[in-house]
Specification:
382 residues; alpha/beta; Rossmann fold; 2 domains; 15 helices; 13 strands; 44% helix; globular
Length: 382
């Protein structure tokens, strides 16, 4: 089977890209010949493929130019199935790993003032993405969509009325041996000692880039409302405005409880040394970081606009709350900071994702690819 996978840019810190790399290795081990169509991959990587990197200025030109280049590449290629992780019409299969842009904008509009809503409505880039998303979902060549959560599936139906028969919920696969509760034995003492944090101090870890969307400000405000004043927070991820969030922590008097650790290529030491995970995101299709934390036995606190919420049993393996509900988040943080509570939830946290191994995901994806082969139309009219 010849499979092409389209992803514009790879960053070693991105959740989607880390998923792609794991998925490609798993697929190749099953005899699938994979070609990656992308602008670039890491310079030190061994992944080969077709480079689509036309000149651009600004993100609208960037996305539109990449889409045109991809359509030429797949028209000239010899592929059984073309799967895109970008919103590009003409592909057989779309993996909605970045969610539904229309749903994300709806969340932003609810929380924006009139000026913000006007900007969102008039933004050329948002208008382009919405139009590209609509074209892709209505394209007759689109045979199937991989939805990374039931939330994403429901968003697609609600915004674009796509036939439910085309929508397949396949959760991201995990390396359950690499992300395991035993990481605590390897990393808890050393990392806490390096950061001068006692073993009995409750530690929450957040992992994600793009602090505004993923709720770091909400987390800082909730920490300031907690009854437990000894809890510590590790913020793992990149953000060009990181200084603003550190300043907010200082204004609210919790700067000594927050450690901004920056991006980490390997987050396992942080997961192994923490007690619980928190992601107060405004919108998140699934979040590999949540899955990895659960696999490590960390109970997770997430919002109801995060796809991973559907894997969490409230009060058993974590908590779910409405985005921006600072008071609710503070209550959940206090609950997990209480002595013995996070530890008692560790088995349930691991069990929540124990069925999401890479092998299970690979089997589901290959079965879907094979189901597309009899009707694959290489004349995509591009």
């Amino acid at each position: 089977m010849k499979l092409a996978i389209v992803r514009q840019k790879y960053t070693p810190y991105g959740g989607a890209e880390r998923f792609v790399e794991r998925a490609l290795k798993a697929l190749e081990s099953q005899g699938v010949a994979v070609t990656v169509i992308a602008r670039q991959w890491p310079a030190d990587g061994d992944r080969q493929g077709i480079r689509c990197n036309p000149f651009f200025i600004g993100r609208l030109w960037r996305d539109a130019g990449f889409a045109r280049c991809v359509r030429r590449a797949i028209a000239n290629g010899d592929f059984d199935v073309v799967q895109s992780l970008e919103r590009i019409a003409g592909c057989d299969l779309f993996r909605a790993g970045d969610g539904v842009h229309a749903a994300w904008l709806a969340q932003r509009r609810r929380r924006a003032g009139w000026l913000g809503r006007l900007w969102l409505r008039c933004s050329p880039w948002h208008r382009y993405l919405l139009a590209a998303e609509a074209r892709m979902f209505r394209d007759p060549h689109l045979k199937a969509v991989i939805c990374v959560s039931r939330m994403v599936r429901d968003d697609i139906v609600r915004h674009y009325q796509v036939d439910a028969g085309k929508l397949h919920v396949i959760y991201n696969g995990l390396d359950l041996a690499a992300f395991h509760p035993d990481l605590a034995l390897r990393h808890r003492h050393d990392l806490r000692a390096r950061l001068d944090i006692a073993d009995d101090t409750p530690v929450f870890v957040y992992v994600g880039s793009g602090f505004a969307r993923k709720g770091v400000a909400t987390l800082i405000e909730a920490a300031a409302r907690m009854h437990c004043r000894m809890a510590r927070f590790w913020i793992v991820g990149k953000d060009k405005h990181s200084q603003r969030y550190q300043a907010l922590a200082r204004r609210l008097g919790v700067a000594d409880r927050f450690h901004f650790l920056g991006a980490q290529q390997d987050v396992r030491p942080c997961l192994g040394a923490a007690d619980a995970f928190v992601l107060p995101t405004l919108y998140e299709p699934l979040s590999n970081a949540v899955l990895e934390a659960l696999a490590c036995g960390l109970p997770a606190i997430v919002t109801d606009t995060c796809g991973a919420a559907e894997l969490i049993q409230p009060g058993i393996s974590g908590f779910v709350f409405a985005a921006d509900d600072v008071a609710a988040l503070a209550r959940h943080l206090d609950a997990l900071a209480a002595p013995g509570i996070a530890v008692s939830m560790r088995p349930a946290a691991r069990a929540a994702v124990a069925h999401l191994g890479l092998e299970a995901m690979t089997e589901q994806m290959i079965a879907l690819y094979r189901s597309l082969l009899p009707t694959a139309d290489h004349g995509r009219g591009l």
